[in-house]
């Protein structure tokens, strides 16, 4: 059986039973297309990782894993899997129950931190800042997930907490991290990538408010909105690789594999650092 079927019968095999507003046939077709984009991008990153030096593969490794997760989650959504029927408090013209795809949030839990990690490594900020920003992105996604599963207007409380968290994240990635990147001579490339990412992040709250939050657009329309944003994030991953060709990984201190098992003059760094004993065993 083909992984990506030529004839889309996902909704016949996995019908959206027990929900008023559900994914349509055209919506499933669109999700299969996005799945293909993620899968092809994953294979491309995996292949490209073998075309550069081992010390310059850090971004390949980060985004290869994120793209694999994206391909799996979009496969689940295109197959009409990974969802729950959740009652709605607003815009009941679209039905009193709505398909909420938790697979979408699983993708973001991996995709957002991967880009944060990439920006953090490029900017040279401390690991404390990077880890803090990753936790902020997790909090943002999880509060939106909680909002999506809340059946009353109290969902907007979770939405507010999550959106405020994104504002903190935006200030960190556009201000503090940019200053650090400028000191390393990559400020222009950094602000291009960070600006691109934050422009997309600005639209995620809008898309959520119209779909899983406010129930103002249907499931298929919401997937078109989110799918375009996610594909643009995939393109951002490729932008990292294109710009990385001009970066000095040694100066940025991200040529990690150069320091594993490195040898100088036939002697490993660990051996060189060890004290000499002159071949004489110490006295008991």
UniProtKB/TrEMBL annotation:
Subcellular location(s) per record: Membrane
Annotated membrane topology: Multi-pass membrane protein
InterPro entries linked: Arc/bac/fun_rhodopsins (IPR001425), Yro2-like_7TM (IPR043476)
Keywords: Membrane, Transmembrane, Transmembrane helix
One CC-aspect GO term: endoplasmic reticulum
Stretches that traverse the bilayer: 30-51, 58-76, 105-123, 130-150, 156-174, 186-204, 224-244
UniProt family annotation: Belongs to the archaeal/bacterial/fungal opsin family.
Name of protein: Uncharacterized protein
Organism: Lipomyces tetrasporus
């Amino acid at each position: 059986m083909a992984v990506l079927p030529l004839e889309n019968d996902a909704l016949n095999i996995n019908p959206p039973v027990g929900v008023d507003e559900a994914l349509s046939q055209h919506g499933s077709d669109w999700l299969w297309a996005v799945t293909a984009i993620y899968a092809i991008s994953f294979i491309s990153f995996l292949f490209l990782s073998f075309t550069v030096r081992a010390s310059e593969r850090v971004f390949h490794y980060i985004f290869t894993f994120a793209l694999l997760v994206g391909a799996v989650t979009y496969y689940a959504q295109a197959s009409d899997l990974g969802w729950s029927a959740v009652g709605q408090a607003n815009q009941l013209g679209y039905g009193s129950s709505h398909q909420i795809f938790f697979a979408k949030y699983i993708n973001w839990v991996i995709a957002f931190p991967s880009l944060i990690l990439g920006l953090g490594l490029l900017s040279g900020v401390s690991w404390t800042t990077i880890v803090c920003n990753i936790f902020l992105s997790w909090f943002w996604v999880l509060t939106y997930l909680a909002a999506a599963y809340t059946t009353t207007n109290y969902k907007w409380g979770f939405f507010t907490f999550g959106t405020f968290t994104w504002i903190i994240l935006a200030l960190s990635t556009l201000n503090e991290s940019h200053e650090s990147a400028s000191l390393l001579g990559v400020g222009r490339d950094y602000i291009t990538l960070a600006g691109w990412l934050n422009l997309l992040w600005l639209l995620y709250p809008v898309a959520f408010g119209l779909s899983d939050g406010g129930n103002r657009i249907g499931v298929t329309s919401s997937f078109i909105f989110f799918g375009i944003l996610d594909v643009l994030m995939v393109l951002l991953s490729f932008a990292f690789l294109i710009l990385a060709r001009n970066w000095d990984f040694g100066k940025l201190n991200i040529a990690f594999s150069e320091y594993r098992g490195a040898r100088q003059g036939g002697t490993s760094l660990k051996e060189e650092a060890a004290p000499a004993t002159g071949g004489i065993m110490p006295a008991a």
